[in-house]
Design goal:
256 residues, alpha/beta, Rossmann fold, six-stranded mixed β-sheet, four-stranded antiparallel β-sheet, 10 strands, globular
Length: 256
């Protein structure tokens, strides 16, 4: 059986085409759809409803914040959107693919092709170089050495740290390490970037710089980004904020 994600060819990417003036006039397609997501942990008396009836769509090129207090369900939601965990019920559709209708191996392949992850703690491999860290998703996809090197250098250049390619992550500042993590997430030109508190380990100034990079990727290159944050100022600077409380979506706010 052929699934739509098999046609997502990362071989010529990342392309990083800037959006032109006319693009905004075109109808924007849906990058992701969450349908009635429900997640229960445990069973019987120990049952905890972590997420209930979460339904929303994200358009291609949209920058969406998921906001809520600790324990509200926002990280559970992000894990379901990224197919790191399966929902108890409900669907996540990315680029037309109902991802939880796939087998585990197909989900792993789809995740590497269609989703880029950015973590609060960077999750870099300190024993190897920045360049090698960025290349990792393309290595998994068995993309040739020269092509993946060229692609990684191009992404690092876009993010302003090409000169750090041969450094080890431990020699970089926190902000530079997060740029490396963002570069890695872009390697297979994903349909969606999922960022879990990407500024959480950074001081305010550096965090704002990293956030500005994400906004640049969204607006200039039309990347679709879903970011979990507890920072109301950052949430207000995205296209739309989805507020989560007690496992449910409390409200959605479109930012002007």
């Amino acid at each position: 059986m052929t699934h739509p994600y098999h046609h997502h060819d990362p071989s010529a990417r990342p392309e990083f085409h800037e959006e032109t003036g006319g693009a905004a006039d075109l109808p924007r397609d849906i990058a992701l759809e969450a349908k009635d997501l429900y997640k229960v942990f445990g069973s019987g008396a120990g049952k905890v409803v972590a997420l209930k009836h979460a339904t929303f769509t994200v358009k291609k090129g949209e920058f969406v914040a998921i906001v809520g207090p600790s324990g509200s369900g926002k990280s559970t939601l992000l894990n379901l959107l990224g197919a790191i965990d399966r929902p108890t019920s409900g669907k996540v559709i990315i680029n037309g693919v109902d991802i939880f209708s796939l087998g585990d191996q197909e989900i792993a392949t789809m995740r590497n092709k269609l989703i880029g992850f950015i973590f609060q703690s960077y999750n870099l491999i300190n024993r190897t170089t920045v360049l090698r860290n960025v290349e990792l998703p393309a290595i998994v996809m068995e993309i040739g050495k020269e092509e993946r090197r060229n692609r990684a250098l191009k992404v690092l250049e876009v993010l302003g740290i090409k000169d750090k390619a041969n450094f080890k992550p431990t020699s970089l500042s926190g902000g530079q390490q997060q740029r490396v993590a963002i570069a890695r997430s872009l390697m297979n030109n994903p349909a969606i970037l999922l960022a879990d508190e990407p500024t959480g380990n950074l001081d305010t100034k550096t965090g704002n710089e990293v956030f500005a990079l994400l906004k640049m990727l969204s607006h200039k290159f039309r990347m679709t980004i879903i970011m979990v944050t507890h920072n109301p100022e950052l949430a207000a600077a995205t296209d739309r904020a989805i507020y989560v409380r007690d496992g449910g979506i409390e409200k959605e706010v479109r930012n002007l």
